[in-house]
Design a protein that fits this description.
Strand order of the largest sheet: 4-3-5-12-6
Structural class: alpha/beta
Mean pLDDT: 81
Radius of gyration: 34 Å
Distance between the termini: 106 Å
Helix content: 40-55%
Number of helices: 12
Order of helices and strands: HHHHEEHEHEHEEEHEHEHEEEHH
Shape: elongated
Low-confidence stretches: 1-22, 29-36, 337-348
Strand content: 15-25%
Length: about 350
């Protein structure tokens, strides 16, 4: 009389029924293995849900799935592994030794799947990649660092390359994606948005004013040492607009380098004309003639029309369009902080 085969215990079924599965999930998809027809991540996801929930019904509710569907997926994974993963009990299911053995591998796969989903989501939303931003020397040195730091904090997937340059041709030659400029771009191929009007102020270092006195009226400027531009005629045109026709010789110190210009004023070289937000970074530089009407400097954000269609560039453009005006307002409202400014600006 043939004997009825003895039912294997949970541990025996795990260890004896799946020699190919003994290596855990690594065996799936390997030629000759139970999973040779391929691997379905959804099966492992369902397995982990049941393992963590302790029952098919609870796992189905947590996943928003139907219990029969979940049961079929677990059965499909068991078929690939060649051994059972759970034993039914009155209170739910109990994991077999094999289920416990492959749990760590399954969780590693789950973590990898989640990271992949996040990476794909960032790429789809245009928040991953490199953006090249160009700005004037002063804006790149004083205005943009806190803005770009905030961009990195908000969008860690965006890499930023900052180019300090005063040439709009950076965008036209596609050498940059976005430009922050203090003049309105006129090229038809560029799309520009005005962000703010930046106040310009006459200013000088306290040491110069202690030596030469503080001007009381605009006419007094002609009796002071002035810091001006070399080939740039912006200041000459500004004085002419106020009815003072002066020449280059009226500027005792001249440079077209914007950073050097600010440092000349900060060194006590004379009275200069700077964007108001710069003063908080120049220790000891104070405004003079507060009622002097100096036209503000417009701040524009520009991008090449074709590049504007890039989701990544558009995302960075929109962030800058909101963050730069806020930073300008914050810097202009904040009093000069010698302790903060001194390390940021090299001594002359």
């Amino acid at each position: 009389m043939a004997q009825t085969p003895r039912r294997r215990t949970r541990h025996e079924s795990a260890e004896g029924a799946g020699a190919d599965a003994a290596g855990g999930l690594a065996g799936l998809g390997r030629p000759g293995a139970p999973g040779e027809r391929g691997f379905d991540w959804a099966l492992v996801q369902s397995f982990l849900a049941v393992l963590d929930a302790g029952s098919l019904s609870r796992a189905a509710r947590q996943l928003g799935a139907q219990q029969p569907t979940l049961s079929r997926q677990v059965a499909a994974l068991e078929a690939q592994l060649g051994a059972p993963l759970f034993e039914r009990t009155g209170r739910g299911v109990q994991p077999t030794a094999l289920a416990l053995a492959i749990a760590d591998d399954a969780r590693t796969m789950q973590l990898g799947a989640e990271q992949l989903q996040q990476r794909l989501a960032r790429q789809r939303s245009g928040t991953s990649g490199c953006v090249r931003i160009t700005a004037s020397q002063v804006a790149a040195s004083y205005l943009l660092p806190p803005v770009l730091t905030a961009l990195q904090a908000a969008e860690p997937g965006i890499e930023v390359e900052l180019v300090a340059s005063n040439q709009l041709t950076n965008l036209l030659r596609r050498e940059a994606d976005i430009a922050v400029r203090m003049v309105r771009p006129t090229q038809a191929s560029l799309v520009a948005r005005k962000l703010a009007d930046i106040p310009i102020t006459a200013c000088a270092h306290e040491s110069y004013l202690a030596r030469a006195g503080t001007p009381k009226r605009p006419d007094d400027l002609l009796h002071h040492r002035l810091v001006g531009y070399d080939r740039d005629d912006t200041l000459l045109r500004g004085f002419a607009a106020m009815g003072a026709a002066i020449g280059r010789e009226h500027f005792a110190l001249r440079t077209d380098d914007q950073l050097a210009y600010g440092r000349l004023v900060a060194a006590g070289g004379g009275i200069g004309f700077l964007a108001a937000y710069n003063l908080r970074w120049l220790e000891g530089v104070v405004p003079v003639l507060p009622l002097l009407a100096i036209p503000p400097l417009p701040c524009w954000l520009a991008v090449h029309r074709e590049i504007r269609g890039s989701a990544l560039v558009r995302h960075a453009f929109d962030f800058l369009a909101e963050a730069i005006p806020r930073e300008l307002a914050a810097q202009q409202a904040a009093p000069a902080d010698p302790a903060a400014a001194a390390p940021s600006v090299p001594r002359p």
